[in-house]
Amino acid sequence: MNSVLEQQRKLHEERERLEDAMSKEFLLKKPSQKDEINSDHRSLELLERNAEASRKLLSMYEDRDGLREEEIASLTGTDEFGEYYRKLKQLKDFHRIRGGEDVEEPLQMEFLKLDESRNNPMEEMQNIVDFSDEEGYGKYLDLHLLYTEYLNLKNFETVDYVTYLQTFDKLFEYPKENKGSDYRKYLMKLLDYLYDYFGRVKPLVDQSKFILDTKAEFEERWSSGQFPGWRKDISTSAMAKHSGAQLDLTAFSSPEELMSLGLDRLKSALTAHGLKCGGTLEERAKRLFATKGKSVDQLDPSLFAKSKASKEKDESERHRDIGFLEAQVYKLSEVLGEQRAATKDNVERRLARTADELEDEEEEEPIISEDEDEEEKVIYNPKNLPLDWDGKPIPYWMYKLHGLNLSYDCEICGDYTYKGPKTFQRHFSEWRHAYGMRRLGIPNTAHFANITKIVDAQQLWSKLKSNKSTERWRPDQEEEYEDSTGNVVSRKVYDDLRRQGLL
To answer: Under DSSP, is residue 281 helix (H, G, I), strand (E, B) or coil?
Structure first.
């Protein structure tokens, strides 16, 4: 029922609210990797919704059906009041017929709920992405199925799982001869998993652009022959082409006479003509005799062998396809290097556990329930006491014992407040207080311990400087000399007597 202009206004409002929600999502504190992954997925959802709203707005501004221009003309015409009452009547008829059905929720309420769910997420909102238990919500890789696929490859070295985690991307070490169709299927499955995991862990990365950048880099290195594992091997044996010896057929009147030359000689002659050189002695002789007195265009196309160049081209395309798959594996393993290293450490740690430790872990796992987790997250702490190592408030008597109920303000630290005398005494040797003293041009020495006021520190520094000036050693007055008669005089007197020639 909304007009075109109203729809445009609503889309503009939606885009502004989406941008505000994305900025709040970006500024949200993310203490764990799980929170960071969930935040990225929420940002991706907002980004896609913003892009969809922008596409709708662009389509409306293009006004291909002319409705927007028609509506603007009706509002700016001579009968604007008549147009207003017609719109009002349509609105009344619409709501009278519908009776309050299909009332849309205002955007303001929708985004208020979104802010509430972001700041206080419910249990079902804490697991936005599906990860296996082995993946630990984006902490580790789960390559067990792909490790099984690797073990099933022929002519590949058998390794344990930890070694496979370290070497699964070192594809350049495998011989070219072993990289067949099974190897290509294995690479496809490996890439399917890595791209899927990459999309779950880093949803804001554009995978299409990622693939295009990888392909551009691969094409450059492949064309130069510098791609790892597929470097061009230009050897004489590889480049040489077998050329057979020509045979003059005018001296032969039948295939039977050609059969007397033997298999090898007939094969050489057929190869020289580019014909098929296989078959029995009789078939080779008949095939070669069929070319007598004929040009190449007059020969039956079925007699010709498949071009070696086309075979080489097909083989090169297959190698290029496999090389591009390997390039993507290299790039993905580089991007997921942090998760890969964490997976290796996690697997080694689990393998180092004893049987008793594994049994204890299995017994402890079912004890932890979701209700207990929820209770731990919502802690009753009305006095705002500091938290202990287990995440619960410390006892109040300990809070009073350590003097944490006492507050100390330090003006030199920018009016920063310290809780407890121990923290207050320690802060004089920490960076914040040292930085404040340096800003004042005063050295942070032991003389200024327990001084928190800027005026007191400046007065003490002035007093220390004056005391140092009076206590400073003055050689002209305090340095002593002895004259020729044994009298002890100051340096100044001694210099005066020496200049007057009285010594």
So the answer is: helix
Per-residue model confidence (pLDDT) at position 240: 36
pLDDT recorded at residue 427: 92
Per-residue HEC secondary structure of 6-24 comes to HHHHHHHHHHHHHHHHHHH
Residues contacting residue 460 through CB under 8 Å, at least 6 positions apart = 447, 448, 451
H or E element, residue 407: strand 407-410
Structure-block tokens of residue 216: 């551009």
Total residue count of the chain as it appears in this document: 503
Closest of 201, 196, 199 to residue 33, by C-alpha: 201
Residue at token pair 């075109």: 4
Q: Report the Cα–Cα distance between both ends of the chain, in Å, rounded.
A: 119
From 122, 87, 104, select the one nearest 5 (Cα to Cα): 87
In angstroms, the CA 198 to CA 208 distance is 12
Q: Does residue 374 contact residue 123 with C-beta atoms inside 8 Å?
A: yes
| Average pLDDT value over all residues in the chain | 81
Contact 284, 277 (CB under 8 A): yes
Mean pLDDT of 36-50: 88
**pLDDT tens readout for residues 45-81:** 889 989 999 999 999 888 888 888 887 877 776 777 7
**Is there a contact between 184 and 176 (Cβ–Cβ < 8 Å)?**
no
Please, which pLDDT band fits residue 191 given cuts at 50, 70 and 90? very high
Question: Among 214-218, 237-241, 321-325, 334-338, which is the least confidently predicted range?
Answer: 237-241
Tally the C-alpha atoms within 13 A of residue 410's C-alpha that lie toward its C-beta: 27
C-alpha radius of gyration, the chain, whole number: 44
Helix, strand counts (H, E) of the chain: 23, 4
335-352 pLDDT tens trace: 888 888 889 888 888 888
> ∠ CA 32-37-41 to the nearest 5 degrees?
150
Q: Could you tell me the maximum CA-CA distance found in the chain, to the nearest angstrom? A: 146
Both tokens of residue 481? 């000399």
Q: Let me know: does 137 contact 338? Beta carbons within 8 Å.
A: no
Where would I find the H helices in 99-160?
107-119, 144-151
